[in-house]
Amino acid sequence: MLLPIRPICTASKIRKNGTSLIFLQYCHSAGNKTLLNTEISIPPNYWNKRRCCINEDLPPEYGKVAELNKEVQRQLRVAEDLISVAIEKGTKDPVAFVKGLYYPKLNLPNAKNNLKEPEPSVNLDFAYQFYQYIESKRRKISKATLNVYSEVLRHIQAFEGHTKTKVNFESFTHDFYDGFVDFLTYDYTSYRFKNSQGLKVNTIGKTIKHLRSFLKDRMSRKIIAEFDLSMFKTMEEPADAIYLNTQEIQAIYNLDLSNDHYLEQHRDLFVLGCYTGLRFSDFSIISKEDVRNGMLHKKQEKSNHWVIIPLRTTARSILEEKFKDGIPQVSNSEFNGTIKQIGKLAGLNSTIKFSHKQGNRKIVTTKPKHNWITSHTCRRSFCTNEFLAGTPVELIMKISGHKSLKDFYKYIKISPEEAAGKIREIWSNRGELQSTNQSI
To answer: Can you state the angle between helices 174-186 and 143-163, rounded to 10 degrees?
Structure first.
């Protein structure tokens, strides 16, 4: 019998020692699934996703590969047999049945006659409830937002490791909030950026915001008792970020990269993003069917609504000539690294200084402009350049997909000199400025 269960080991659940547990993922249905802990752990890069087994080059300090793979397969057979028992018994909830009875050392032949369906009860394990929350949202929100939810759980689990205290639904007090925010501010180490300690204010604020939403959801479903969340205050500070003006974008597009097809493709994708105002998750998957009568019709992944974007000559040329066979698949992190290199080749080397708060400290970071470029620079550049060109904000928002003026103006990144120049232009057009050659 082919059962919906397989071993997995993901990099999203790396522990402090650099390993991830191998789980047996049992999916009875899209909304009813569970993870069964094998208690075997390895560095996730030695897991073969296609074959669902440990690679032969696993360092010996983590165990013998043959024995570990044999044990994973043994546990998989036990879990499959347990699922079969659940089906034979006609249990109402096979996932709860398997979850409640399974453990790595289970000897099913000896225990089979004594297996009883667990009494229906609510699993109040925090991580379990958070996974359930994520699953309930999977068909309603974008993949990027799902990743943000997973990041929130990762922050909670890191805090558990830091305090050596298990977080449960009774944990959420004033003291927890203060300790959690303090930990994220000064002590949290990202699994992606090992040399960076502490998170920015906006990242912490986003974590608190989604944690509040999760707790409110569990309350509304009567899974946990209601309690006061007013102490869980979100926080925000203006985000420092660059945009590229039209001359800088053109300088990037004019680069001769004909000898480096890889860089050339990334360059064209970046310019396409600057001329459409879409998020990376949208402009990196544009297809031929999205272009009709010189217009780009795209359903935005994050907001789930349609935008229609007139295509400039350059954008249309990129789609019809450079990407006529389709846009190459590229990850956001790979793209972010490559476009910095391209920005350097285009001469975007002016020094840019940004600052952010870490608790009561001001952290200042200085880098060349090309090192500040990310995929989000495309969207900021589009909005800012259109704003400076005098395009009505309401029309820009129709293309960018922003739903509120507050969110839109976060994307407008102009210098005081540019703002002064824009005001001078407006006043000059109204005849309110004397000639610059006239003495005062």
So the answer is: 100
Which two tokens mark 45? 């890069």
**H-helix or E-strand containing 364?**
strand 361-368
Amino acid symbol at 370: H
Kindly tell me if the per-residue pLDDT of 439 is higher than 60: no
**What separation, in Å, do the N-terminal and C-terminal C-alpha atoms of the chain show?**
91
Find out whether 10 and 52 touch, Cβ atoms under 8 Å.
Answer: no
pLDDT band at 374 (very low <50, low <70, confident <90, very high): very high
pTM of the complete model beyond 0.90: no
Of 402, 399, 413, nearest to 275 by C-alpha is 399
Mean per-residue pLDDT, 42-66: 93
Q: Encoding tokens for residue 219?
A: 């309350």
Outline where 53-167 has alpha helix (H). Answer: 65-89, 94-101, 108-111, 126-137, 143-163
Contact between 330 and 360 (Cβ < 8 Å): no
Backbone angles phi, psi at 228, to 5 degrees: -75, 125
For residue 431, what are its two tokens?
């005849």
Contacts by 61-66, CB closer than 8 A, 24 or more apart? 62/19
Asked whether the beta carbons of 86 and 94 are under 8 A apart, the reply is: yes
Instruction: Quote the CA–CA distance of 130 and 119 in Å, as a whole number.
Output: 22
Asked if 292 and 309 count as a contact pair (C-beta separation under 8 A), the reply is: no
Q: pLDDT for 187-211, tens place per residue?
A: 998 766 556 688 888 899 999 999 9
CA distance 370 to 23: 42
Please name every residue paired with 64 in a beta bridge, in sequence order, or none if there are none.
Answer: none
Q: What angle do CA 199, 135, 125 make, to 5 degrees?
A: 75
